[in-house]
Amino acid sequence: MPSPAHLCSGRMDVELRHLRAFLAVARHLSFSRAASELRMTQPSLSRSVQRLEAALGTRLVHRTSRNVTLTPAGQYAQERLGRQLPALDSTLNGIRDSGTIRLGFAWLLPDPWTQRAVVRFENATRGTVEPVRHDDPAAAVDLGEVDVAVIRGAPPGGNATAVPFLRERRVAAVSTSSPLAARDRLGWDEFRNWPLVVNTVSGSTTPADWADGQAPDDVVPCGNFDEWLELVAAGRGVGVVPDSAVRRSPHSWIRFLPIDDAPPIPVRIVYSPGSRHPLLRAFVEAAMAERPCRAPGTG
Predict the structure, then answer these.
(1) 8 alpha-carbon distance from chain centroid
(2) Would you identify the family this protein belongs to, as annotated (predicted)?
């Protein structure tokens, strides 16, 4: 039997799709189920397996009208290719994606920092940045779903590296139908007097941000930013968001007001210290280079 090392050499007309077709058949011992998995017709699947067998010069699959079995050569091929092909796919995917940084975020990436950092990075590396929205971007880093993330609030747990790079001012959001809309500003210690609308999934302000005895007792929970906007607009309570929301999420039924003595929202870059992405360091350097000399919210 030919050596597995020769399967994809120039001496054999074997394509990766032929190998995937054979492994699907070997897994299911059924051409119909394998064809369904690969989303191809059974005749096409049969031709792929036959071409692989022709290239190898040996039969891999024994097929009758009732069942499908593997020959000894097929069993050997399944054992070896079952380990080697996933590793090859991983390598090919890594090569394909090495020029792309997946940037995770929950909502409203900080501006203008994001735009400046992306331009600096892409000009320096010819790589690209792909924004990926995720309810928990720090968890997405741990799972390998994104390469780096921007988070607001407390640093995440786990092994991820979290680097603070700016702070955002907090602003209040009130319904235009509320008497508070006539105010010029609100005090941080006043919020205990009103229901607080809280995005419990990806929000940046919760009752834990107030000192003991000053936090709002009445919380109106919601699951995303759009729900948060509509609950505030409907007068169900007041909200607190980064000042970037004022510029980027105006609402005709919401007025945004400055807050006296509100602590700023810390913003961090999060990434895995074990990441081998060839462009991760370049992105972090570009991001840190574009942080403001004096972060918003510092005075």
Answers:
(1) 34
(2) Belongs to the LysR transcriptional regulatory family.
Residue with the two structure tokens 């607009």: 233
> By C-alpha distance, which of 149, 280, 259 is closest to 210?
259
Question: Lowest-confidence range among 12-21, 50-59, 128-137?
Answer: 12-21
> Are the C-beta atoms of residues 4 and 80 closer than 8 Å to each other?
yes
CA dihedral 240, 221, 103, 165 (to 10 degrees): 40
Distances (CA, A) of 278 to 102, 137, 163: 13, 20, 19
Cα four-point dihedral sign 99, 248, 218, 230: negative
CATH, range 170-263: 3.40.190.10
Helix axes 113-125, 280-289, angle to 10 degrees: 130
What is the CATH code for 4-97? Answer: 1.10.10.10
DSSP 240: E
- Alpha-carbon distance of 150 to 163, in angstroms, equals 10
Token pair for residue 3?
């050596």
Extract the tokens encoding 13: 């007309």
> Distance (Å, rounded) from C-alpha 107 to C-alpha 80?
45
> Which residues sit opposite 252 in a β-bridge?
none
Class of domain 100-167+266-289: alpha beta
pLDDT band (50, 70, 90) for residue 1: very low
Domain limits of the chain? 4-97, 100-167+266-289, 170-263
Mean pLDDT of the chain: 90
Both tokens assigned to 143: 């799972």
pLDDT band at 12 (very low <50, low <70, confident <90, very high): low
> CA 29, CA 42: separation in Å to the nearest integer?
13
